[in-house]
Amino acid sequence: MTFTSGFLPNFDGFIRFTTASFGVSRSLSAYSTKQKIFHNLEWLYGTSTQVRINWTTENGLKIGSSASALIPGSSSLLYSDGPFLVSMTDDGVPFPLYVKLEAGINSDPGFGVTGTLSCHLRQGDFLNNVFFESEVGSVEIRGENGSREFFELTTPSSSLSTSSSMLEIQGADVKPYFKLPVRTTRSLATTDENSGVVLCWLDFYGTPVAGSGATNGFAIYSVFAQEFCPKLESL
Amino acid sequence: MIKDIKSLVRPFFDSNRRSNALTGRGVSADDWGSASRGVNYLLGRGNQLIPVFHQDIPSGSSMPDVGGFTLYSQVMRVAPSYSALDRYWSFSFSSDGAGIVEIIVSGSQLNQTELYPININQTVNLYREPVNSVSTDVSGTQEVRVLFRVSSSNGSGIIPTRWSCFEAPRKTLNPLSSSTEGGVNEGSFRVGYPIYDSGIDQYESPVGVARNIQIARKQVRRAGLFCWSVPLDQSGNEFDTFALICTSSVYEEKLKFPIITKPTYRDVTSSNVLLMWVGRSADFRAGGTVKFENGLGDQIEYNLTGVSGLALEAWQSGSLPVPCFDVNHDRGFPTGSVGAPGFIPYITMSMKVTNQITAQAADQPFKIWTVQAFEPHEDLLEFSGSYTS
Which DSSP symbol is given to A104? Predict the structure, then answer.
């Protein structure tokens, strides 16, 4: 299975099947009928991708304050989202997710920080046995007390947006999603009737530069991850 | 004709073979078998009912206390598929001290877990909720109530910080088990087998594929688009600490969340989002208005009349169009005047107090505890005609 830049087929609408639609022969020759069946199947698959993470907080998820200082120059796990299930594709095929991270500097005094925020994908099974982990993006952040900067993670290089709204992305090179290299190794079954699944976590690491993180920290305001709509033209 | 009615659900979508459906030529049994595997995958994989969401509740916050226990509940809705046998809930807690938390979902205990003093966001694991029956209302959703019973050495120090819910994928489907199960017997696609067999068209032959695609159209959707929910008391009555509370007679923005919908047809640029929320106006003499906006000039407003007591009002719902992704966009983003690369549509929710008989809005606050967004379900088209020929 290969994903390309092709298009989803047009949605033909669901037909009401009658005897006449199928005829009585052993092979369907009615083009519209059989094509619609395959069209509709593709359409359902391509448009039913799931929203896995979607949260926004007004106050921000404050990580690393004077009470739990980050260590300048070292990478610290700040926050994890998940576990969440990712629909599988064929083995080895990247399965993109939108990951929009809104993070910034809280307006609290002393919360400014300079450093790097990176996002890692971790995969495991129902017993939380992790068998795959990779970095999917990072961004440099520069904060000033009393300000809030919004940006999103990009991969492989960082890109910083300083727009006033989380929904305005600036810059021609912005890649507002990650391609998470999700593997499809089937994991442990849960019950006889349920399929084993692969679970994922998104881990966010912060690395303050020397002198900036001892009493300061990061704040994450929103994370949004939605499975990409696959292009099925060349299946 | 029935050999085996177990319909296998593979872990990924089978290669679709639309290009093999040609005018004037038959479609091979192998290609129909591929289609059957594809529709079984769609019916069996399960939906994300509640996307991972983070509650903005600081550690150490005051929680409802009943007889030495911290007891509180949260109410929300899910849009289930009818084929799921199990749901999995994932909770993370923050804890200032050791304690035990008992989780009860819709009256059934899911788990009792001992916690130790931890930092924020400890994932406590997944809890399986068997789905015995699914009963949905006209919106295609059902209410779920989660009760937390916490025994803590540090009072109310244990609070949930993050959770999610998804349906476990099925290994097999059994189309004979119920009328809503769905599933196609892929073993029925062999050379010489009929394209239609009276009485078993639900799960065999190309007719079975077609029928199950229609079933899948209703079940397979972006079930949960967004969820925001905060604790109530143990009875599901109001608890103000974390609610969205408005005391202003002019709109105050309270929530802003991203949404990407799917197009119903190829050329449409927006699709409706089903919005549901629950709250109350604290004084029977007053009321509240909630407004949802899509950033494109569209909005819906709903008025809520105040009632006496502490119970929440009935669920409110509305529909709002939101830009959907463009199938011609190589990344699947929405396009249009606001569709610059990276644009993700959003919905903004605002609140205000209305119908005040006095100017003392602070005495008549308008409160909301849960706000959710779903993709509306499609009406299920039924077959017409008969298949007796």
Answer: E
* pTM of this prediction exceeds 0.90: no
Asked if B218 and B134 touch (Cβ cutoff 8 Å), the reply is no
Q: Which helix H or strand E contains B321, and what residues bound it?
A: strand B316-323
Q: What pairs with residue B72 in β-bridges?
A: B148, B233
Q: Which of B16, B23, B209 sits opposite A235 (nearest CB)?
A: B16
Nearest-CA distance B319 → chain A (Å): 19
**Cis amide bond preceding A83, omega within 30:** yes
A76 in Cβ contact with A207 (< 8 Å): yes
The two tokens of residue A42 are 């593709």
Q: If you ran DSSP here, which 8-state letter would residue B362 be given?
A: G
DSSP H or E segment with residue B209 = helix B205-219
Share of chain B above pLDDT 70, in %: 76
Cα(A154)–Cα(A138) distance, integer angstroms: 6
Specify burial of residue B197 (Cβ count, 10 A radius: 0-12, 13-18, 19+).
middle
Q: Which residue of B has its CA nearest to A37?
A: B210
pLDDT in tens, A86-115: 766 544 444 556 666 555 544 443 445 566
**pLDDT by residue (tens digit) across A188-197?**
444 556 666 6
Q: What is the residue-wise DSSP string for B189-204?
A: --TT--S--TT-TTTS
ipTM: 0.88
Q: List the beta bridge partners of residue B301.
A: B291
Query: In terms of Cα–Cα distance, which of A209, A214, A204, A218 is closest to A114?
Result: A209
Is residue A158 within 8 Å of A171, Cβ to Cβ?
A: no
Return the closest-CA partner of residue B48 out of B14, B87, B18: B87
Residue B372 contacts residue B228 (beta carbons within 8 Å): yes
Tell me how far CA of residue B208 lies from CA of A31, B196, B205, B215, B389, in angstroms.
18, 8, 5, 10, 16
The DSSP letter of residue B44 is H
Using a CB-CB distance cutoff of 8 angstroms, which residues of chain B are in contact with residue A196?
A: 11
Closest CA to B342 of A67, A126, A66, A100: A100
Residue A150 has pLDDT above 70, yes or no: no
